[in-house]
Amino acid sequence: MECTVSWTGNLNTRSGMGFLAETGSGHTLMMDGAPDADKPENGGQNLAPRPLETVLAGTGGCTAYDVVLILKRGRHAVQGCTVKLSAERATTEPKVFTKIHMHFTVTGKNIPAAAVERAVAMSHEKYCSASIMLAKTADITTSFELQEAA
């Protein structure tokens, strides 16, 4: 797996904190920092997600992918899956994630709660590389709800 990240800030004034990530699979992703009122040259322009927001989003994508795949392999009629992540970070450098909660909403027909519970557990214990890696610094908790499809 490869990724190249390039600074897109203003090269003449050395300001701006925008970055362009180009992935090995041929996709691009913009990232930016928060504006800094005290030192505008050190801040971003809020034009894209923060780098750590992309880490959190990637973790959500990784675990949701697992949950859907596990449910489909179990022949469950899954029609939708969302995961809402909320995280807390350390107050001092390095400001790693210290707590992450993931709330899954799974939509489908006649999916047993035990199947969703098992899929979420399998993702976090065995398959989701991102959440397993983040669990080295963060207390990760999960919850879920089932919505019956029409």
UniProtKB/TrEMBL annotation:
It comes from the Bacteria. Pfam families: OsmC (PF02566). PANTHER family: PROTEIN YHFA. This is OsmC family protein.
